[in-house]
User: What shape does this take?
Amino acid sequence: MAFREYKIGTRMFGIALGGSMIITLYMPSLDIYSVGVTETGLVKGLSYGNNSGFSYADPFLQGKGKPLTITVKKDPVTGADIDPVDAYVYKPGIPFPSAIRNPGILGAEVAALSAEDGRVGDASEAEGAVFLVSRGDYEGETFSYIENVSATRKWTTEKVLTEAADSDTYHVGSGKTMFVREGCWWCHTLLPEQTQDWQYFGLPPRLGDFNGESPTAFGSDRKGPDLLHVGSRNSSKEWMMMHFFNPRLVQPHSIMPRFDYLWGEVDENGNEIDYDQWRSDYNAYVAGENIYPPVVPDYAPNSEIRYLMDYVLSLK
Ligand code: HEC
Assistant: This one.
């Protein structure tokens, strides 16, 4: 057989493979770049931090290398009362999210506002920075954009952190890592569908809610309710605590596993949690020997359940 056929075949194969790669990989990326980010997208990007899955900053998915969400009630510089506002605090060395590293993904308008009015380009990971989601005008239209308040208002990470009460501090980013690590997405979606679904679970998300988010944790298969807006329909910390410690305390036939081990060794006051005792009391309650179930311990301020709870309750 002449060599010619092979050459033609090889070229045709190359064109077909290359063409399909362009269509499936390159062309959608152009489309994604043209989607302007929503305010929800900005809030998520800033509160979740760089990456909630496996990364070299957090190889064992312990929630390390994440920003803190802090509700600021007093101007950290002047001390004057202000309308409460959520600030996203990146201590020195905490990796910035895609929105800061690569503002192009936010869409042209938000990227321009964040660079010019927000001075996002002045932020450095080595020094740390504090960001807000602010509103501003670009060519006659109003947009939410990212403001680097360390540059624009001298709100340093130190000042914001020393002013902040623990009850105004939320570990939303570390909590999303817990959500990924614990496999909540095996049973729960974060994606109400464009069907009557939204009547119960709330509005489906919009495309611009996800710019730069990794991973999105949409989930695939639902064995429990959608959680995208769970914090709006159920914001009771007490209910959530009981439900995570042992879902059967509040939903007798729930198939959801218990996540009591996220409490760790000690409770809020530093006393050791006696899981064996708790379970035997619980079994006695289920058997009808006790009238009341055992009390769920209050969690320690740096426990993994705190992170998860802060994340779940942030899903508004
Ligand atoms: C084996 C499947 C399964 C896994 C894994 C699972 N869940 Fe659930 N979850 C359910 C089911 C079923 C329900 C509904 C019954 C109930 O309330 O317990 C539920 C209910 C919930 C609710 C209440 C929802 C509402 O509408 O009020 C929350 C919040 C929740 N789960 C969070 C989580 C989180 C966070 C994780 C991971 C740490 C998780 N679940 C892991 C199955 C699961």
